[in-house]
Amino acid sequence: MQDFQYQNGTLYCEGVSLDAIAEKVGTPFFAYSHQTLTRQIRAYKDAFAEVPHLIAFAVKANANIAVLKLFGNEGGGADIVSGGELHRALAAGIDPKKLVFAGVGKTKPEMAAALRAGILMFNIESSQELTALDETAKEMGVKAPVALRVNPNVNPNTHPYISTGLKKSKFGIEIKQAVAEYHLAARLSHIKVVGIHSHIGSQLTEVKPFVDALQLISDLIDGLRAQNMDIQYWDIGGGLGITYNAESPPLPKDMADAILPLLKKSGCHIILEPGRSLTGNAGVLVTRVIYTKEGEAKSFVVVDAGMNDLIRPSLYQAYHAIQPVLENHRGKKVVDVVGPICESGDFLAQDRELPEAMPGELLAVMSAGAYAFTMTSNYNARPRPPEILVHGTSFDIIRARETMDDLLRGEQIPEILTSPKD
Ligand code: LLP
User: Is 162 close to ligand 1, i.e. is its CB under 6 Å away?
Assistant: First the structure.
């Protein structure tokens, strides 16, 4: 993580020490590097410069409106999957003509909101959804621009929970069914076919699954065009992995080198939907050690961030590197780093060798810029941490720490409980 380096024994994000941020905002907190975010989107822009393209950042990876705005300033758009993500993208000032809307369960009100905003296209995942969109567009007197999400049945060799392009997956339309579905789309009066979409999974560490999947889609595009379908946009999804531990995933340039011939041949406007590779290594979660504890079989470092703040280790057995914010030269020790939540599954690392940590010290949980804050919850009535954007030697709070009152927002005690009759 290039922009997170030690300077005189203290871990910095760009030109700001993480303990200076802790001093100001308390712990735990998320900090993102403006420079990394900018470098990552520019790496995609440069890699795909030879084809007309749109980088539609997958909002689910990091939905903070400041992050969306930063990508918007770089010419990026957004891949959204809900009315809420639409609202966020619009609030960040993203051009609606740069929004693509995916997801298996879009509701009619969500479709209507996206039609009102005038988004670029809907990535449709089933015939019922197609019909619902046609009905919604008809009621509004507009035509809905559509791509079908096709499932190429290619194994991305990643964690099963984040593989999406296999036959047994709930996502997309089976490639064998695709032509029939396009014919249905073409028959519907308020649908306009404009493109094709696929996304095979996340945290991919090789280019071959992309090439295999996109080859199949390329053949399908030829077949569809032969039947007069107007495929102008080819959305190739996201999925490029990052280094959490020892992985060496391809760079956007490696991916581009492998697939550009196919993309160019299509003459399509290319849409990319990267999430993790834009923000994952742009962020850390900083937490403070509360106690250390010697169990009979294990040693524990109890910290003030838990699975409600970063669920990836508990949910996917994901590895996140952990580094002390202040370097120390104590011996190493094998520990579990655990949170304060009342669940055995509440850990940030298990059986991890770390320099011995002392109560009060700060630890940085690395690679926490994607699927980290967006997957937080208030479990155990824990307010969500703040998010910080570092830019050079200064930083801004881009989301305040939740307050105790935020925890109660929207809740009410009904009268039957305040003046019970019996
Ligand atoms: N496009 C679609 C249609 C997607 O479903 C996803 C991710 C992306 C793009 C972005 O994929 P990326 O470039 O980030 O790999 N919570 C999991 C990851 C879930 C990914 C869901 N879909 C995790 O923490 O690993």
Answer: yes
Topology (CATH level 3) of domain 34-276: TIM Barrel (3.20.20)
Q: Helices 34-47 and 252-266, interaxial angle, to 10°?
A: 40
User: What is the per-residue pLDDT for 233?
Assistant: 98
Nearest-angstrom CA–CA distance, 175 and 223: 12
Task: Tell me how many helices (H) and strands (E) the chain has.
Answer: 13, 21
Residue 243, both tokens: 């280094």
Atom of ligand 1 nearest to the CA of 375: 16
CB atoms within 10 A of CB 243: 15
Is the predicted pLDDT of residue 161 greater than 70, yes or no?
Answer: no
Is-contact 249 283, C-beta < 8 A? no
Ligand 1 binding pocket includes 312 (Cβ within 6 Å) = yes
How does pLDDT run across 268-278, given as a tens digit for each residue?
Answer: 999 999 999 99
Q: Whose CA is nearest to atom 16 of ligand 1?
A: 371
| Domain definitions of the chain by residue range | 4-31+280-408, 34-276
pLDDT-based confidence at 212, cuts 50/70/90?
A: very high
Nearest CA to ligand 1 atom 9: 238
Q: Do domains 4-31+280-408 and 34-276 have the same CATH topology?
A: no
Nearest-atom number in ligand 1 for the CA of 239 is 15
pTM comes to 0.96
From 273, 309, 367, give the residue whose CB has the most ligand 1 atoms within 8 Å, as the site to mutate.
Answer: 273
Mind listing the pLDDT tens digit for each residue in 91-141? 999 999 999 999 999 999 999 999 999 999 999 999 999 999 999 999 999
- If you measure from the C-alpha of residue 241 to the centroid of ligand 1, how many angstroms do you get, rounded to a whole number? 10
Cβ–ligand 1 distance for 235 under 6 Å, the answer no
What CATH number has the domain spanning 4-31+280-408? 2.40.37.10
- For residues 271 and 79, give the distance between their C-alpha atoms in angstroms, rounded to a whole number: 10
Does ligand 1 lie within 6 Å of residue 320's CB atom?
A: no
Cβ of residue 371 lying under 6 Å from some atom of ligand 1: yes
